[in-house]
Every structure is written in structure tokens, then in C-alpha cells.
Amino acid sequence: MSYFFYYFALLRRLVVFMLFLMLLLPLMGSTQFRGISDNDSLQLEELLEKIVVANRYYSYEALLTYEANGTLSTLRLSHIIDYNSKHHKVQQHLAFLDGTNRHIIREQELKYCGGGKTKWGLWPSHFDVEYLNRYYRMTIQRKERIAERQALTIDFAPKDKFRYGYRFSIDTKTGLILRSLVIQNDEILERTTFVSLSFETHALRQHSDKSATSWRVPEVEPCHTEQFQSAWSVGWLPAGFAPAGNRMTALGEQMLMFTDGIVSISVFIISGSDQNLPKVTAYRGATVAVISPLSFDPSNSVAVVGEVPAVTARRMAVSVRSP
């Protein structure tokens, strides 16, 4: 179980760190990338748009650190945009450089769906600054130096107790995020930081370490995240969260997905579970997993997994209703 939560927390943090940028694509239009201004009056929408353009066009390799629960891991990340495919394909390869030799691999086509909107992975097809302002206080903060590059910091402070805060430090020359923090009550739960960054695309390697344990993230059809109409429902959601699609896992479990535009929460319905299965709350960094038998049907259990406080996951779990 510990490895599962480790991978889940790290992947979800990297999703926020990288794929968060992709959900902003509808704001991009035909804008060409320009360097981020140092003017403190720079509009938040313009800054976010520049981040999207950067992540859309840059291939790079980076060394980074990931901190959570008092531990520090060093990783290598390759992010490659393939322009030769019919649709731009994004290839990501994450290698753990200390501890057990592990790799996480992801390849995904980036497609435009109906109306020119884009879905990539589980992220929404539209980023609405006005909408998020209802649930986060978004402000542009200080300048800092990270990985020998100048960065500008933007904060997402939660307006309620049911979500975490986020802080992104953005490279002023490229628009890439160099540091990402998850924060609760001024406590840093997770920190991901670029240590070095290279745009020499010819140096990007096709990693083929056969001794490593690799996990390939399944490709998601960008325009069709809802695979079936689930008879299960979640009676309570934090304000601002909405359904993001339903899927069946490889084990045949139903998975219901929800998002507020930054954070995603997954609710798994586990059928035929042991009636003696205890209630479990497990943490890894900012990611929590709450597993509990259903009070009205002990033969089924629910698991709520997401980058949210435990109070949120528990309240969602007890609100799950059967067909």
C-alpha cells in the first residue's frame, strides 16, 4: 500500500505541476509566446496564458527534488512535445534517481475537441479565472531565483477548509513552473523544485533501463472522459467541484471523478469487499486516501483519493449513495 500512495501522490503532484498548464489552452488562441513582464501590475490572466504557451511548445529535461512527509527524492523529468504526429503528442518520463529504481512513463495526444476546447488527461477543458476566484484568492507575489533562473511566484489561497493552497514559481523567461508547493495553514505538505533545466532537445534520452520498475500511465481519450453513466452518486462535494467523468478501472471498479479546475478527486466503488474491512485513512504528502465500508451495504466499500484535506475525503465517502 505504501508504494501505491507514494506513486499516486507524486504523480498527482506532477500532474498539478505540468498538466495544470494544459487545461488553460482555450485561453491561448493564436498568441505567440513573449517573456513574462516584471511589471507588478501584470494581469493574472495574461500570466497564466503565457504559462500555457510555454508548456505547449517547449521540450526540456530537468532534475528536480520532491519533498513530502520529511523525505526528499531526486528525480529526472523528460518532457517532449512531438510535432511529427497528427496531433501534438506529449511524452513524459519520470525517473527516480535514488532509492528503488523506478520509472513513470506517460504518452498522450493533445487533441482539440468540439468548440475548440481541449481535454488532456482528467483535466477540465476550460480554465475560468473568474470561477476560481470564488474558491481561491489568486495573487502575484515575489520574485525569486530557482535553478539559476529568475522566477515570479503566484499564490492560490483557499477560501474554505475543504481544499489546499498552491504556490507556483514561474520562470520569467520561458513561463515554465520551476517550483510548486501544496500548503495547508501555512504548512508545506509537498514541494517540487527544479534544480536544473535544459532545452537541448537533442540531449533528451529514450530511457531503456531494463532493471527499473516502470509504470506506464494509461492514455486517456481527451474528448470522451465519461465512459458510462454510473448509478452511484456522491451526495456532498466541496463548493466548486463538479463531475469530470466516470471510468472503469482495470480491476472492474467504478471510478467517479470530480474537479474544481485545479484539484481532482477520485471516488472508487469497491464491490465484494470483505465485510470486516476496517476504515482506513492514509496520507502521502498532500494526497489522502479514505477507505470505508458502506454503512448501508457492507459488501461494498468506497475509496476517496485526492489532493484534499482528510475532512473533505471523509465527508465525500459517507455521502456516497447506491443505485
Known CATH architecture of the largest domain: Clam
Spatial order of the strands in the main sheet? 5-6-7-8-9-1-2-3-4-10
CATH superfamily of the largest domain: Lipoprotein localisation LolA/LolB/LppX
Which secondary-structure class do the elements indicate?
mainly beta
Number of strands: 18
What is the arithmetic mean of pLDDT? 76
**Helix count, per DSSP?**
4
Top CATH class of the largest domain: Mainly Beta
Whole-angstrom Rg: 20 Å
Main sheet characteristics: 10 strands, mixed
What oligomeric state is this?
Answer: single chain
- Number of structural domains: 2
Order of helices and strands: HHEEEEHEEEEEEEEEEEEEHE
Q: Which strand-content bin applies to the residues?
A: 35-45%
Shape: globular
Instruction: Assign a percent range to the helix content.
Output: 10-25%
Q: How far do the termini sit from each other? A: 29 Å
Q: Kindly report the CATH topology of the largest domain.
A: outer membrane lipoprotein receptor (LolB), chain A
Q: pLDDT under 50 segments (min length 5)?
A: 1-41, 112-126, 219-226
